[in-house]
Amino acid sequence: MKIYGDSNSGNCLKVKWVCDALALPYDWIDVDTLKHETRTAQFLKLNSAGQVPAVAFDDGRVLAQSNAIIRYLARDSDLIPKDAFAAAKMDEWLFWEQYSHEPYLAVCRFQMKYLGKPASDLDPDKVKRGYAALARMEHELAATRFLVGDSLTLADVSLLAYTRLAREGGFHLDGYASLRRWIGEAERSLGLKPVR
User: Fold this and answer.
1) Is pTM, for the whole model, over 0.85?
2) Homologous superfamily of the 2-73 domain (CATH)
């Protein structure tokens, strides 16, 4: 399969991490979103939404949206709980990540890291909602090792992508001991180098 992705994107890295964790072979095709390479006619033929990641399988089928991709790739693996309710709780976190986490942490990071905005120019509502997302995770992780119990699942993979880079979006994790512990454990479980 071919993964079309921007290596600066947490959403794209989720797909890479799952493939690496499960030893799934792939070719990584770099797509530079800052150069609008997702807006070319060739890319739009692949994914009409004009977004990365997109995965082209050997049989010609294409799948987009990071959490849908990792859900598909990890089917029948230990990254998805066998228990139906635990799997549904994992899905709950996946949906929450795209609606209540990524729009704040990832957007603030993009604005600071790639647009050069100072933290003082970030939308205060995005910052407030980003901290609310981090607080919810901290509360959950104070009680459980990972987001769905004691084992790493796709919920952890998905939420790790931008949480581990929160500082690049102006978010400080000093008061989030459980969250910092989880980041370290999830990084080690996935074989990732810690973010400094």
Assistant:
1) yes
2) Glutaredoxin (3.40.30.10)
